[in-house]
């Protein structure tokens, strides 16, 4: 997501300067060999932390998704440093060379176009390789669109599951939503967070309404920018709104967990359906309960009691 203005550092320690006054220093100095992940603004260019600037200035090179995006940000803050592209298409090929530079004593900084590196952005494979090679890996925290949208959504903040982008094609998207729904039926109860492109927003919301069922959601767009907006409602209502009013800008979708009562009702309905099918196929009460318990993971006694109740209901 994209850039703006002000955040603090992660782990800092108070040290006494030569003059006797406390000074803040980061836990991982910029000049130390290794890799530092640096969060950049998601909209407001002023949201670049002082420690982030210090690390970027001290780096031997800054790895970025797109030099055309990162160069203006650094120029605005007077940072002059070598920029090296690192994106999904070259990360595997570039990683050995970057590890060699760290081994030679260089300190590299990694940024994404906007926000916190690795969150739906490249860099994971490099970080994993750097850790495996024994290089120091640290981070300077800052803006993150997913967390900001979650805090503004009005939906339960924990637990939450960050998914990133859903597949753009309808069939693959439906399959992924089906997997999430299956996880919920198996016990997952979390607020879900997605990124989405504006031209797909309405159809994605409609697909969520179909596959996840009725539930509250929020659409956060243009966070920290001039036209920041957070619209809240049901998935169905939000889908209708954005079908009639196409969205623009960077978008985060936050979807609330299913209501406990709805989940209980759906689980019971599914259990009844499975039991009736097993009994209709000629299974005994005990065998039907055993089969359904094995398929659902529910306690056999609970399933048997429900099967008994169904038989008594006729």
TrEMBL record:
<dbReference type="InterPro" id="IPR014777">
    <property type="entry name" value="4pyrrole_Mease_sub1"/>
</dbReference>
<keyword id="KW-0808">Transferase</keyword>
<dbReference type="InterPro" id="IPR008189">
    <property type="entry name" value="rRNA_ssu_MeTfrase_I"/>
</dbReference>
<keyword id="KW-0963">Cytoplasm</keyword>
<dbReference type="InterPro" id="IPR000878">
    <property type="entry name" value="4pyrrol_Mease"/>
</dbReference>
<feature type="domain" description="Tetrapyrrole methylase">
    <location>
        <begin position="35"/>
        <end position="238"/>
    </location>
</feature>
<dbReference type="Pfam" id="PF23016">
    <property type="entry name" value="RsmI_C"/>
</dbReference>
<feature type="region of interest" description="Disordered">
    <location>
        <begin position="1"/>
        <end position="35"/>
    </location>
</feature>
<dbReference type="GO" id="GO:0005737">
    <property type="term" value="C:cytoplasm"/>
</dbReference>
<dbReference type="GO" id="GO:0070677">
    <property type="term" value="F:rRNA (cytosine-2'-O-)-methyltransferase activity"/>
</dbReference>
<comment type="similarity">
    <text>Belongs to the methyltransferase superfamily. RsmI family.</text>
</comment>
<keyword id="KW-0949">S-adenosyl-L-methionine</keyword>
<feature type="compositionally biased region" description="Polar residues">
    <location>
        <begin position="9"/>
        <end position="26"/>
    </location>
</feature>
<comment type="function">
    <text>Catalyzes the 2'-O-methylation of the ribose of cytidine 1402 (C1402) in 16S rRNA.</text>
</comment>
<feature type="domain" description="RsmI HTH">
    <location>
        <begin position="272"/>
        <end position="311"/>
    </location>
</feature>
<dbReference type="InterPro" id="IPR035996">
    <property type="entry name" value="4pyrrol_Methylase_sf"/>
</dbReference>
<keyword id="KW-0698">rRNA processing</keyword>
<dbReference type="InterPro" id="IPR014776">
    <property type="entry name" value="4pyrrole_Mease_sub2"/>
</dbReference>
<keyword id="KW-0489">Methyltransferase</keyword>
<dbReference type="InterPro" id="IPR053910">
    <property type="entry name" value="RsmI_HTH"/>
</dbReference>
<protein>
    <recommendedName>
        <fullName>Ribosomal RNA small subunit methyltransferase I</fullName>
        <ecNumber>2.1.1.198</ecNumber>
    </recommendedName>
</protein>
<dbReference type="Pfam" id="PF00590">
    <property type="entry name" value="TP_methylase"/>
</dbReference>
């Amino acid at each position: 997501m994209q850039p703006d203005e002000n955040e603090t550092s992660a782990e800092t320690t108070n040290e006494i300067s030569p003059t006797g006054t406390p000074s803040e220093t980061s836990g991982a100095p910029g000049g130390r060999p290794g890799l530092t992940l640096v969060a950049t603004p998601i909209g407001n260019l002023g949201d670049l932390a002082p420690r982030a600037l210090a690390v970027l200035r001290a780096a031997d090179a800054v790895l970025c998704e797109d030099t055309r995006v990162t160069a203006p940000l650094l120029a605005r803050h007077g940072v002059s440093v070598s920029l090296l592209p690192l994106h999904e298409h070259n990360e595997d090929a570039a990683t050995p060379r970057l590890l060699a530079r760290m081994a030679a004593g260089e300190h590299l900084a990694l940024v994404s176009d906007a926000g916190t590196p690795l969150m739906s952005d490249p860099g994971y494979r490099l970080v994993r390789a750097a850790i495996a090679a024994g290089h120091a890996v640290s981070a300077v925290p800052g803006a993150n669109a997913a967390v900001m949208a979650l805090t503004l959504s009005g939906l339960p903040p924990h637990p939450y599951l960050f998914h990133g982008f859903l597949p753009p094609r309808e069939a693959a998207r439906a399959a992924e939503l089906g997997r999430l729904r299956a996880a919920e039926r198996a016990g997952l109860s979390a607020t879900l967070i997605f990124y989405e492109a504006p031209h797909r927003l309405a159809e994605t919301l409609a697909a969520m309404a179909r596959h996840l069922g009725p539930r509250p959601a929020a659409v956060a767009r243009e966070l920290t920018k001039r036209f920041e907006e957070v619209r809240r409602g049901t998935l169905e209502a939000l889908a209708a709104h954005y079908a009639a009013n196409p969205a623009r800008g960077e978008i985060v979708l936050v979807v609330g967990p299913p209501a406990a009562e709805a989940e209980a009702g759906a689980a019971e309905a599914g259990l009844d359906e499975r039991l009736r099918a097993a009994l209709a196929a000629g299974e005994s009460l005990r065998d039907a309960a055993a089969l359904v318990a094995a398929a659902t993971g529910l306690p056999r006694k609970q399933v048997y009691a429900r099967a008994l109740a169904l038989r008594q209901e006729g």
